[in-house]
Amino acid sequence: MAKSTKLTLSPTKISAFLRCRRFYWFRYIQKYQTRPRAEFTFGAALHRSLDAFHGATERPTVETLQAQFREGWTTAGFKTPEEAQRALEAAQGILEKYHQEAPPPEAAPEILLREKMLRVDCGEYVLMGRVDRVDRHPDGTLEIIDYKSGRSRVTESQTRADIGLMVYEAMIRRLYPDSRVTVSIHALRPNQRATIARTDGEFAEVLTFIDDTAHAIAAETDWEGVCDKDLCEDCDFLLWCPDRWPGRDADQMSNDNPS
After folding, report:
1. Quick one: which of 127, 133, 183, 200 could link to 165 by a disulfide (CB 3.0–4.6 Å)?
2. Is the CA virtual torsion 133, 137, 142, 143 positive or negative?
3. Of 49, 98, 94, nearest to 73 (Cα)?
């Protein structure tokens, strides 16, 4: 069977394109690899622990949850052992708070999906992404929950503007067309959640945004960089970027693949 040539979009790819088209070119067309980052290590470890917490047949104790986290902990991306240790201690506190404030199993909504990779064909392109959690409430409402491990607060406006939740909502609404859908950011540090329900008009705007982005990516040929100091100085591909090194074009520089 011939492999599909449809454009595949994820929240990460959309965000990368909107951030810098040159970055998108390096990462998703030339397939350069990004370096390990502490915030990704931290977030991924917390996601694994929460998945284990919600997937257990019997609710684990907080001590068990914390021990499981320590067993799977890595220091990839951290600059110093001290920095990694501080992150480990912060995670233990986050898990303790989450465990203490979690509703009892008999009062909790049904968890429909956990850490589930979804893929939905939208005609001209394919949407895909790993949704952290989808709860089904007693009234049938589906709540899409996206964990954020680095935030000390969360607002409804942040939830409304989150690209990941836009993509997840588009996929969930296609998969469960008869269900009411809400979306939430769950900030893990304060253990707080901000939830919104879009009107039909607002969701139509989300679909237009995704469509327009897909068309822009499909039509892009120049892949120009943004040349923004705040964005560029921490870019994984700065050493290979022709915007930093005038006189060399991107195709020439792609021969020196950093991966």
Report:
1. 183
2. negative
3. 49
- Helix, strand and coil content of the chain, in percent to the nearest 5, comes to 45, 20, 35
CA 246 to chain centre: 33
Domain boundaries, the chain: 38-105, 111-219
- The DSSP code sequence of 39-80 is HHHHHHHHHHHHHHHHH-SSPPPHHHHHHHHHHH---TT-SS
CA distance 231 to 71: 34
Instruction: For residue range 201-227, list pLDDT tens digits in order.
Output: 999 999 999 999 999 999 999 998 888
Q: Which residue has the tokens 């898990």?
A: 95
Exposure string over 17-30, b if 16+ CB within 10 A, otherwise e: beebbbbbbbbbeb
pLDDT in tens, 137-190: 999 999 999 999 999 999 999 999 999 999 999 999 999 999 999 999 999 999
Give the H/E segment covering residue 184: strand 181-187
Token look-up 């006189």 returns 247
How far is CA 162 from each of CA 145, 154, 167, 185, 214, rounded to the nearest angstrom?
A: 12, 11, 9, 9, 17
Q: Tell the burial category of 157 from Cβ atoms under 10 Å away from its Cβ (0-12, 13-18, 19+).
A: exposed
